[in-house]
Amino acid sequence: MSDINIKITDREGVTHEVVAPTDMSMNLMEIIRSYELAEEGTIGVCGGMAMCASCQVYVINDPGLEPMGDEEDAMLGEAFHVEANSRLGCQLHIVSEMEGLEVEIAPYP
Fold this sequence. Notes:
Blueprint: E1 3-9, E2 15-21, H1 28-34, E3 56-61, H2 70-76, E4 86-88, E5 102-105
GO molecular function: 2 iron, 2 sulfur cluster binding; electron transfer activity; metal ion binding
Keywords: 2Fe-2S, Iron, Iron-sulfur, Metal-binding
InterPro entries: 2Fe-2S_ferredoxin-like_sf (IPR036010), Adrenodoxin-like (IPR001055), Beta-grasp_dom_sf (IPR012675)
């Protein structure tokens, strides 16, 4: 089993240092939900299908994330509060290369 350390700043500005497993096929949205870092019903509304942008995060420290795919890029093109460093948490699958990732959860529309 291999875990990584991620810093997640919630919508109130509080930074949480969390441990995320790399062997459970989880994504960042699921980690945020499992640690209850966003109010129920305000994150992962579409179930992680890249169709709602409720799991949008701002990447503060990128240790080497996979490039953005077409579906993620298209959804962010329609989302609110998008910044140059925006990504969808549901599209960021937890892998060991993400050690040291720092993100801030974007405001909920």
